[in-house]
Specification:
single chain, alpha+beta, Jelly Rolls, Arc Repressor Mutant, subunit A, 2 domains, 6-stranded antiparallel beta sheet, 4-stranded antiparallel beta sheet, 10 helices, 10 strands
Length: 270
């Protein structure tokens, strides 16, 4: 049986992360990220679940996750996955988008999947330059050309109308989780904040966010731990500061959600 390989690199020129997973069979649970994920399948097949829809993705397909888009995936027939992706923070995407379009906004990818996309070759080229730690004009040009083409072909047009009214009670719960992630939080607490009973909160929250309050909290904690690890904080300290019981608790969720150990992630910033 072939060995899994997981490689991650942070590009200081572009300020983005690049992941490469080879021979992966891991199942990833329903979760979200605070950043954009733009990736493609080099080989293999996966069943992807995103925003209450199911997709079968395979070689040559590009995937897009906007910040906060919930998603999960699993192997098909125990097939191994070779996968590359770029993680782009919203502030970087906004800056690049403004330079490309002249408009100050965050683009929204309309679908999580672009099947057999012609843009996969350009994405692979950029990804490999990042992995090879190339620092030159060609890499930056490729990055801007790629984002420009992806925005034009795969994002939704900017709407002039005001966004739809949101469920403020659920948003209040989200804000509470984002502010108090390091504390012990009970469903009773969240139900009081939302002014709902516990079942109504679970139903409304999951319908609106595509993820349960517990999964939302764990994702917030993982994202906060990533920030600390990127600053050189030790995994044990990052675990305690972000509400995990201990380092093992953090490691279990980190591998489940990110596919790397906290130590592996921290090492890319050394």
């Amino acid at each position: 049986m072939g060995r899994e390989e997981r490689t991650v690199c942070f590009d200081y020129d572009l300020q983005i992360e690049a992941y490469r997973f080879e021979g992966i069979m891991q199942k990833f649970p329903n979760h979200f990220h605070e950043y954009y994920v733009i990736g493609f399948i080099e080989s293999g097949q996966r069943r992807l679940f995103s925003k209450n829809k199911e997709y079968v993705i395979g070689t040559g397909d590009i995937i897009f996750f906007n910040p906060m888009d919930n998603h999960a995936c699993e192997s098909i027939d125990n097939e191994k996955l070779d996968y590359r992706c770029l993680n782009i923070k919203p502030e970087i995407m906004r800056k690049v988008t403004k330079e490309i379009t002249g408009q100050d906004y965050l683009p929204s990818f309309a679908s999580p999947v672009a099947y057999r996309s012609e843009k996969a070759h350009l994405l692979q080229k950029l990804h490999q330059m990042i992995m090879d730690e190339i620092s030159d004009l060609e890499k930056e040009e490729t990055f801007y050309i790629l984002i420009q083409q992806l925005i034009e072909e795969y994002t939704e047009a900017i709407k002039d109308t005001e966004p739809r009214a949101i469920n403020q009670d659920v948003e209040n719960v989200c804000h509470y989780l984002e502010e108090h992630y390091a504390e012990h939080i009970a469903l009773d607490d969240l139900a009081k904040i939302a002014n709902m009973n516990k079942y109504s909160l679970l139903r409304s929250f999951t319908r609106m966010k595509g993820i349960t309050p517990y999964r939302y909290l764990q994702t917030v904690r993982i994202n906060e731990a990533k920030k600390r690890l990127g600053q050189g904080v030790k995994p044990l300290d990052a675990a305690i500061e972000t509400g995990f019981v201990d380092q093992s608790h953090l490691s279990n969720f980190f591998v489940e959600f990110i596919g790397l150990t906290p130590g592996q992630y921290r090492d890319i910033f050394k």
